[in-house]
Design brief:
Structural class: alpha/beta
Radius of gyration: 17 Å
Shape: globular
Number of strands: 6
Number of helices: 12
Strand content: 5-15%
Largest sheet: 6 strands, parallel
Helix content: 40-55%
């Protein structure tokens, strides 16, 4: 199991690093007026600032180099962080225990609320960040600070990590990531597999919390969080959707969800359903 988990984490890190590289030009070109701008004040149209949570093996600036500026251009004050770093010397997060990371995330939620003067935040989470967007309001008990949650491919009920080893091998990053795992390990990896300890906490009883509106978005072509429907929350008041329900030809993969113009529009509609717009189908990275 240890070798499988090491390969799993290696592949997740590799995939996120690839996606970050692919979107560097988008980061440079996109407007950043409301993205990670601590002088930003929420508008009447979008009173809840956004907290954007990255995936395992990623970091906030890289994971949200596309979606962050996109949402800022929609008029949101949007903020991200890199949580769960084993060491500040390496810009990779989410590898420490879910419990430790969730405490950092709650502190960041409070920082955003204090800076903006907002009573609540909305949370957009990708992969492990999606898991954290569900875990924090329920397990840490701060649902009263959250208005909406949009979770992209969260391993809600645990994941089997299908196909990850081949992804890591294909990208040729196994030696580098193996060194990181050898030095620091990956407690979070063991906690979000099927039967993982923090999955058990999240799924003991209802996941959705009163007063919070939830949307879960997944891809039928996700090779990392598997089986695909492990992301969904089959509870009243939760909207579960596949990208392909709207755009059947979009073959976006797990990492690509954060860099897909189709998904960006779905996220925007979930955050502001009263002003939802017709989605113009695009294509995300298949990784």
């Amino acid at each position: 199991m240890r070798n499988v988990l090491r390969r799993t984490a290696a592949s997740l890190v590799a995939a996120v690093l690839l996606a970050t590289t692919l979107t560097a030009s988008a980061q440079a070109a996109a407007p950043r007026s409301g993205f990670d701008n601590w002088a930003c004040k929420p508008s009447a149209a979008h009173p809840n600032p956004l907290v954007l949570l990255h995936g395992l093996g990623g970091n906030g600036p890289g994971n949200y180099s596309f979606l962050g500026p996109y949402l800022a251009a929609k008029g949101y004050c949007a903020y991200t962080l890199t949580y769960g770093q084993a060491t500040p010397l390496i810009p990779v997060g989410g590898t420490v225990s879910i419990v430790q990371s969730s405490a950092q995330i709650e502190a960041f939620v409070d920082r955003v609320r204090q800076s903006t003067g907002a009573a609540k935040v909305d949370i957009v989470g990708h992969s492990e960040g999606g898991f954290q967007s569900l875990y924090g309001p329920k397990v840490r008990g701060y649902a009263g600070k959250v208005g909406k949650v949009v979770a992209l491919a969260p391993p809600t009920h645990g994941t089997t990590f299908g196909g990850l080893v081949s992804v890591g091998d294909y990208l040729g990053l196994r030696p580098l990531v193996d060194q990181v795992l050898r030095d620091f390990g990956c407690p979070a990896c063991d906690e979000i597999i099927v039967g993982g300890s923090e999955v058990a906490k999240l799924t003991a009883g209802p996941i959705a919390q009163p007063g919070v509106k939830y949307t879960v978005i997944a891809s039928r072509f996700d090779a990392l969080v598997t089986p695909h429907e492990t992301s969904f929350i089959r509870e009243p008041g939760v909207r579960n959707q596949f990208v392909q329900d709207t755009c059947p030809l979009d073959l976006v993969g797990h990492v690509g969800l954060a860099f897909d113009p189709t998904v960006a529009q779905l996220v925007a509609n979930a955050l502001d359903p009263a002003n939802a717009r017709r989605v113009i189908c695009g294509f995300g990275p298949p990784v």
